[in-house]
Specification:
About 50% of the residues lie in helices and about 15% in strands. With about 350 residues, the chain is of the alpha/beta class. The protein folds into 2 domains: about 220 residues, Spore Coat Polysaccharide Biosynthesis Protein SpsA, Chain A; about 120 residues, no CATH class.
Length: about 350
Amino acid sequence: MSNENISVIVPVYNTAEYLPRTIESLIEQTYKHITIILVDDGSTDGSGRICDEYAKVNEKIKVIHQNNSGMGEARYQGYLAANKDNWISFIDSDDIIAPNMYERMMDYAYDSDVVVTSIRDILSNELSFFEFENNEEKPIYYSGSDALFNMYCCSNGRFLPGSICGMLLRGSLLSKELPIIEKYRNVIPQNFLNDCFISPRIIYESEKVVYMKNNYYLHRIHRKADSRSLIPNDLAYEFPYVQENVLKYLLEHDRLVEYKYQLIRLYLTILKLWYQVISYENNSRKKIETIEQIEDLYNKYYSDLTSLKCNSVSEKVTLCVILMWKKHKKFWKFIIGDVKFKLLYRIGR
């Protein structure tokens, strides 16, 4: 077994109810060469105190306290405190990983830049009934180019997960890429180092990516989590810019297939934000400004949108839904927005 160190970075914000189990799942790892970096992002529910208590009794745990600055900044501060010579991993503070996740990852890390595990979404009340898979692992090996393709297009029966959580990243790769995107740190503080923003870049710049198909990572889903609220927050207002930035990155690297799917993601993002703003933004000036920005962004790529070739019925339906908005906004709000967003969010999905 390798003795290279893994720095595990955990941004923490108001997850006191779930944080101990997350930390315990890290302490219980069968791979022992890990450092756990807990970044308390100005929590107000006692999460910071929980971090300090664990650090007192476990020398592997380091704690950073900062004013509330968002998950991206918390991840970044954790990275600055990490050992960048070996491996970096990010975990959300309410998620749980299998006891042998890092041991299995390190089995394939010796000649790779990124090791990716499957992620399973699970409701809190289902966690007590869940057992991690113990099947024989049959990993899939990709070049960075092929891995990027599989993040957007299903191959070998499944997509490559795009969440930076559940990835083991070679420190030298992050050290090379982060200075390039650091200029966005103050532009999109809530989304800097967010999955959508950084994962395509990291994956594409890798020489070799290993995908472990077994589920070693449980992503906790909350029925009433703030992050699933329809009231627009800073994270939501930044997100169209993030999606457009990734779109430009793909075009710059001539990734036209991925560009198509990222274009769809961009439009779905801005239309969701439009619905949130129309329905829930109380600041009239901000509402007007945001709607104007959304309409400008919608029109900016409209010719590319209308020239897309759809390969499936679901793609055709999605494209029709996006195009419908341009001329039938009120109808779209009622049929698409109120039904898809409001109804589904009410039942907590």
